[in-house]
Amino acid sequence: RRPKNFPPGPPVMPILGNILDLSLENPLKDFERLRKAYGNVYSIYIGSRPAVVINGTKAIKEAFVTKGSDFAGRPQDMFVNDVIKHNGVIMADYDTVWKEHRRFALMTMRNFGMGKNSMEEKIHGEIQYTINTLEMSVGKTLSPQVVFHNAASNIICQVLFGKRYEYDDEFIKVLIQCFTENSKITNGPWAMVSQNFYDRKKAFKNVKIAENLVKRVFAEHIETRVPGEPRDLVDCYLDELDKRDGDRSSFSMEQLTMFALDLHFAGTDTTSNTLLTAFLYLMNYPHIQERCQEEIDEVLEGKDQATFNDRNQMPYVQAVIHEVQRISNTVPLSVFHCTTKDTELMGYSIPKGMLIIPNLTSLLNEEGQWKYPQEFNPENFLNDKGEFVKPEAFMPFSTGPRTCLGEGLARMELFLVFVTLLRKFKFIWPEDAGEPDYTPIFGAIMTPKPYRIKVQHRN
Ligand code: HEM
Predict the structure, then answer these.
(1) Choice among 26-40, 116-130, 314-328 with the minimum mean pLDDT
(2) What distance in angstroms lies between residue 288's CA and the mean position of ligand 1's atoms?
(3) Does 294 map to a domain?
(4) Is residue 404 a known part of a binding site?
């Protein structure tokens, strides 16, 4: 039975809890059904473990902004915590390790954002490889999955390791295989219910392989670095290690390993799947693609390449990119949180250590927030004067102290890739491709179903 004043929810079965109330293939519709039945804050039992599901702008803001620190923990007793040996930043609890590493990552990425070797230049450098690949397919069709995945992976590799990798490079191939397998193992349908279902050995082995790979890159860095003259995030971390007192600092080579893997993992599939969604819709809404191209041509006339600042002169393009992010629902249930102390939410009592599921999907078509909640329509982000506006419910990166650490980088990537490719190419839905299927494949990160694109040069 639920404790007094605990959020309501469906009746609980012994051992299984509410697991039969949720489709294990895709529970998003069930979460919405339960929201309608029990309100924006409700509870479910995953096996014998209670969890509070938070829905809608008002409750999400109260939890993660107004009571940010109360809701900023991460569960520490899940299988994934063991697999990553409690290291890294994504699953770190609300503690000094998390605070110091988060601050370090934000500061380092900001510093690389400026100057000659800036983030913009790194992104443009990588886009050139994407353009070359597309050039080879002009007039033909190609599968864009690998192209966008490769681009997103290489941009984050440039930031972390100062280099890019060809897609068939052993380093990147094996690293991605380890991530993909472990995502399946730790997020699999029964993963939350019982650890007996996990392929535990395989998950630990994959982490070991990934760790050894990045450790080799660190060894190269240690050999070739000039202290105080960092080339990338790994060099910055090594400088930081020099400065800190080894015993009392939360920085260590062990932490660096999972930290780097975390950033690569978090920065690759998220951005590449958003780009995949963008091009899926642009091909099937050619009038939207053309209107973007008109605006891009006008603003960039006489310029070699776009800068991130150009977005301020492109309200329509901005609206389309934001609408793509809304519709793609890339991280549908955010990353699970955990309460750091006994607290209250919307009048309910929530004890310390409670598993919290932020249902970001509930914001996508929330009543009163969107002009056209059920359709792909950039008007959702434009006011009557055609100016770009961002409704409060737009939170694909979550909100509060744990909000996505890579938001700045992701937004810059999305804008520069989108604008540069649309300026150069026309993207066409192949004649023999049939009706597009917009329903994504459910996962911790949503993925559009595989599709092909036809590329043409613009006149
Ligand atoms: C379109 C792209 C992206 C989306 C939609 C996205 C979304 C999210 C979301 C929803 C969270 C969970 C926040 C929370 O727990 O409240 C998150 C966390 C995180 N993201 Fe992203 N992300 C994207 C790109 C990136 C990139 C490029 C990086 C790499 C630098 C990154 C690094 C992280 C990290 C490290 C966290 C954990 C933050 C923490 O626990 O303090 N993300 N992201």
Answers:
(1) 116-130
(2) 28
(3) yes
(4) yes
